[in-house]
Amino acid sequence: MTLPRDIAEFEGDWLLDRVIDDRLTGQKLRAEGGATLRRSEGGLTYDEQVTLFMPGQPPFHGTRRYLWRPGPGGIAIHFEDGRFFHHLTLGQVAPGDHHDCPPDSYDAGYDFARWPLWRVRWTVKGPRKDYEMVTDFRRR
């Protein structure tokens, strides 16, 4: 089994498909788009562009940016403003991490069993949040 062992293995263009199971509203949302990871100062910059499909509403276009930096045993992922978000351990089939953002809680589970296909599953809970977001990535 091949696993990613270095941040450079993520560089490039990825297609993504996302499903969001919103338990508060009972809706399943879908998104599709792409992510580009490009070399930048200190690591990679992750830029995502998606189209979100919500029942009964016109498609919504969204973007997000994260900073990926080499860290102990893996990758330190930061928000665009530099605040730490979570750590991605490399060399494991299914690494995970937790991000606390009171009053909300974010649990990440990565799956590299079919690398270079990979998946990220976020389980989010809080007073106004209860959803699971699963994103599948494949090379463009």
TrEMBL record:
- Name it: DUF6314 family protein
Segments forming domain DUF6314 = 10-139
Q: What is the lineage of its organism?
A: Bacteria, Pseudomonadati, Pseudomonadota, Alphaproteobacteria, Rhodobacterales
Q: Superkingdom, according to UniProt?
A: Bacteria
Which Pfam families does UniProt cross-reference here? Answer: DUF6314
